[in-house]
Amino acid sequence: MLLSHHSTLTQFLIEERRRHPTASGDLNALILDVALACKAIARTVALGEIGGVLGNQGDGAAASVNVQGETQKKLDVVSNEVFLQRTEWSGLLAGMASEEMELPYQIPSQYPRGKYLLVFDPLDGSSNIDVNVSVGSIFSILRAPADVVESGRDVTEADFFQPGAQQCVAGYALYGPTTMFVLTVGNGVNGFTLDPNLGEFMLTHPRIQVPPDTQEFAINASNARFWEAPVKRYVDECLAGKTGARGKDFNMRWIASMVAEAHRILMRGGVFLYPRDNKDPSKPGRLRLLYEANPVGLLMEQAGGRASTGREPMMDVIPTSLHQRIGLVFGSKNEVERIERYHREPAACKDDANPLFVERSLFRD
Ligand code: AHG
Ligand code: MN
Ligand code: MN
Questions:
Q1: Is 76 in the pocket of ligand 1 (CB under 6 A)?
Q2: Residue 349, φ and ψ in degrees, nearest 5
Q3: Residue 121: CB within 6 Å of ligand 1?
Q4: Is residue 258 classed as helix, strand or coil in its secondary structure?
Q5: What is the spatial distance between Cα 229 and Cα 169, in angstroms, rounded to a whole number?
Q6: Does the CB atom of residue 66 touch ligand 1 within 6 A?
Q7: Which class is domain 216-356?
Q8: What pLDDT does 356 receive?
Q9: Cα 165 from chain centre
Q10: Pick the CATH number of 9-205 from 3.30.540.10, 3.40.50.2000, 3.40.50.2300, 2.60.120.380
Q11: Residue 343 Cα, ligand 3 centroid: separation in angstroms?
Q12: What is the pLDDT of residues 112-154, one digit of tens each?
């Protein structure tokens, strides 16, 4: 088929902007730069071993480690470079922050500075890259504080400490069997599929909605012994299935690429948990607030789902550090609300061996 009836990402953005005549169009240009970065990363990912980009960055003792103490994959580093290179020149950004850079990235002096901040996880799920399982890129666009824009000064970490509710744009690219770009500009969630012949993202999934109920959950069960009581209770009830408090069977999935789990949940519902646990007191959760939890959280909320720390809405959390980790629960609204309720009921979940807990969960619902 030569002609597709789908709108391109560019057409979609221009038509959206027409509905907001006062908007400058700068954001659209920035989104298109990010989309181009994602297309470049998609090509590199698709080449796999042929492209010479699999494996770790550096070898053996020289293996390179990022600020999180995690071994960097070559593709983590390449993807980070692609994001910087495709966006730094535009004059739209005041600064950037990335999982792969300890400090905020300053726009080089040869380029003008703009009014937005770009925050990203250049490659999410990168432990999956060597086994040919889906990975993705996650991004968030914030407004730079007024004094940054007025003075053109370097950005500091504190300039990024804005709650998720203030994100102007959030999205991700998923490098799966097809490459997709999923986006919110604060007016619902739309999904685009890369047409590799045209090199264009086409609007294939307009107005994505997360179903409010689900029978599918995702959690890394190898951490079960470190979970807090409300999470144990929730998972136990799912596992008990038809014969338990929930009265229905659940299915479980774990891809270990959060971006792919988020996509599955946007497509057909579900709930994802990487909760705060007792594994390592220095790490309150596994996933990062600014470039994982917040963008995915906004997408969920914009699609009628919900995102939470378990204790409070993710979008309300005021960040306190650039690479802050946080407990994350997102997906189908009723399920996330249930998990939040379990966190508010400490008496019922003090101890899962406590007969009170067992009794109460029997009588629930
Ligand atoms: P990243 O590759 O950006 O470091 O993120 C990996 C994250 C996330 O994608 C995934 O859900 C989680 O780590 C996987 O954790 P486990 O190793 O516990 O499965
Ligand atoms: Mn990640
Ligand atoms: Mn990453």
A1: no
A2: -130, 20
A3: yes
A4: helix
A5: 35
A6: no
A7: alpha beta
A8: 44
A9: 14
A10: 3.30.540.10
A11: 29
A12: 999 999 999 999 999 999 999 999 999 999 999 999 999 999 9
